[in-house]
């Protein structure tokens, strides 16, 4: 089984080699030309939720923020570490190699929890393997971009909790969403095909809104193209997961809608998320504003969800000790106590 998993991982890597080569070529050119990276503002919500579609304005970054292009890529790498470890373990039963987890920024952390899913549907198993290959490639690509900008800019993998037990981050998320009893219930994402899809749904929509929120704040056209490419891949994943869950009927739809509501309660917006089914039972496979533009989340809002907390601070949930960033402000939850 392990041998087959290794061959499957290698096959996926080969299929994406051409894409990664193009990514790294662009990243290297951008690093050579960048010189110094300008300061940008922290990500903000630029969506218009008015009921009548209107032209969407072009976001104008403020000059008062502290986020840089490198800082944004470091934050993205934190999220990719989380997703890649979850999918790799669920699909192949193996963690990322140690060589892909080192870095000069932050403290290297371990992964808590996770096991290979015994899929009953070969189609879902195929989805899991493909997405795992994509997320592993994203980690490799972002690490290469940061290395090209300066070897001391690569972040180490932070401590990650993807456990489905009583003290696991997935159980805490499920309790917050009301999927299980809020004091004694547990949620194991590795127990069934549907649990795996719900866990994937929790991650993928956050990734899309995080990259969307960061995109107008990146000054380098090369880095912007790279980030846009990853955003598009994450959006494909999210659309696939949302569609599959909707096709599974009322129970799956209700659970996904509850997760979406919980994410909004954590990020403090109540407007940046949407379930997979409308109140009349029709599909809502593309969460977007009145202009059909995907929602944006700021770095603080992303951390609120990843940390599973509504109070200000660093760490918790899927990142027990916080994320690793060279800019301290990018590690902090934006919620207020």
From TrEMBL:
<dbReference type="InterPro" id="IPR009078">
    <property type="entry name" value="Ferritin-like_SF"/>
</dbReference>
<dbReference type="Pfam" id="PF13668">
    <property type="entry name" value="Ferritin_2"/>
</dbReference>
<feature type="region of interest" description="Disordered">
    <location>
        <begin position="42"/>
        <end position="65"/>
    </location>
</feature>
<dbReference type="InterPro" id="IPR052965">
    <property type="entry name" value="Pigment-catalase-like"/>
</dbReference>
<dbReference type="InterPro" id="IPR006311">
    <property type="entry name" value="TAT_signal"/>
</dbReference>
<protein>
    <submittedName>
        <fullName>Ferritin-like domain-containing protein</fullName>
    </submittedName>
</protein>
<dbReference type="InterPro" id="IPR019546">
    <property type="entry name" value="TAT_signal_bac_arc"/>
</dbReference>
